[in-house]
Fold these 2 entries.
Entry 1:
Amino acid sequence: MAASLACSFFFDAEPVAEPAMPAQDACALCAKQLARDSDVFMYRGDTPFCSEDCRHHQMRLDDRQAAKAAARRQRQFSSATASARGHRDSREVPVAS
């Protein structure tokens, strides 16, 4: 009973005072239509999925993308640090005594 009651607000008409938002009547991953009498699995606030499998698949995709972005940032940081060290070394001038 609670699941169908919780889903009922999800499909209600949009409030008059709020701007139009994209319809959330299909799974964000597989585009399967979401029925009023079925459970809706949410992720990241307002992204609907038809099943736990679709939601977990999206979570794994997001994790992989985040890991790739972190690795890319690390490579950029490492190359920038190495470049700065090399640049700093080239500015040093030996002093004759």
Entry 2:
Amino acid sequence: MAVTALLDLHLRPDVIETAPSVLAAILADTRAFAGSLGIEVLEDVADPAHLTVVERWESLEHDNAYRAWRATPEGASGLGEILAAPPSLWRYETQSTL
């Protein structure tokens, strides 16, 4: 069953201008990971330092594999270096019966 992951990010104010290139590099690896169905980045209209990354995955297993990879030295992204606070993650399964 497809999974949507919402990753809520709050950027440090001093990286607002450089964050897009950092995030583009990180998200290129995410998009290339097995099971990725696509990614969208939403910017808060009232606060450009507040972003939500919407990730779509083929299954919870694919998303779990991606999260496990990001926790390894090979998958480490450096995202934490541009964040003002730890990210928040929510994951949802698509309900096709509703």
